[in-house]
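Researcher: I'm preparing a figure for a lab meeting and need a structural model of a single chain. I don't have an experimental structure, so a prediction will have to do for now. The sequence is pasted below. Please return the structure as tokens so I can convert it later.
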Amino acid sequence: MNITKIRKYIKIIEDTKKKYVSVSFLSQKSGIKEEIIKEDLLPLIPLINFDLEINLKEYLNVLKEEEEKINESRTVKRRVLKNNEAKEYDSIIDFIYKNACVEGGVLDLGYTFTAKDLKILSKLIKEEKEKLNK
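Model: Understood. Here is the structure written out token by token.
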């Protein structure tokens, strides 16, 4: 199940002052169809398909536990720039010439830099600053 949907459901249930929160109320507040909410919550609340008037406030702890379980299993991957990726370019100009220019050295105005390109550029800029300070 999607962590953002769980968080959305939890926030809506917690923020409401009503003692009774139904699937239809959750659907109205979240903008997600009732069928989709039922599909999402079915593994956590098996009775949701049989009981049309189930109170979701009673199952708030179950949703929070699922959110914690998903958070523990999630790992955020960082993209680390290797030194050899930036070392294949002599300078900033060399990087731009090899990547953002078409044949003949004309600058390609349609070229868009990726996150990797920007990391390489920042590393090359740092090296240029060190050369200037020496």
